[in-house]
Design goal:
The chain has helices at residues 16-28, 50-54, 76-86; strands spanning 7-13, 33-39, 65-72. It is an alpha+beta fold. It starts with 6 loop residues before the first strand and ends with a helix. It is globular and about 35 Å long. It is built from 3 helices and 3 strands; from the N terminus they run E-H-E-H-E-H. The longest helix is centred in the N-terminal third of the chain and has 13 residues, at 16-28. 10% of the residues are buried.
């Protein structure tokens, strides 16, 4: 089980295709992972409703979602070597 105490961030990307490739590689090599998706356009408690005031005109909507993938600390070196060899 991956918890906040035994995990390390493997990668963070705004590209959906990249995060799919990384997750497929982790599954292929049987490396447990967890991921987090952050919607950068959603209102926050500090600026509730700002999107309604400003809209999205002129913003790059490809940067709306950030995908962060975590692996166990003990699997980090192996996972990093796999993604660096296969994705770039």
């Amino acid at each position: 089980m991956i918890t906040i105490f035994n995990r390390k961030e493997l990668t963070s990307t705004f590209d959906m295709k990249t995060q799919v490739k990384v997750r497929e590689l982790m599954a292929q090599y049987h490396i447990p992972y967890s991921y987090k998706v952050i919607n950068r356009k959603s209102p926050s408690p500090f600026s509730a409703g700002s999107r309604a005031r400003t809209g999205t005109f002129g913003e790059n909507l490809q940067l709306a979602y950030e995908y962060t993938i975590y692996v166990k600390k003990i699997d980090y070196e192996k996972a990093n070597a796999i993604i660096n060899g296969k994705i770039k």
